[in-house]
Amino acid sequence: MGDPVTTAPTPSRADALIREHRASMHPETLRAWASDAVDELGRLQADNELLRGDYALRGAQIQRMATLIDELEARKAPSPAKEA
Prior knowledge:
Layout: H1 11-23, H2 27-75
């Protein structure tokens, strides 16, 4: 048959692997790793806020465009009925 499917570890197994890896790290290495993780988290949170702001702006733009389209369609004269 085909090759066996490889799956990622379950979340609980992944957590256990992370804990095991951290436990084997030298304290200085662990502190540096934690500091890097905090820096990355801060960067990701800032990116998230920018994306949320962009999403809100684009949503407002889309809503305004929909309103303008509705206003333009309301101004149009009704189309004459097509003759069969």
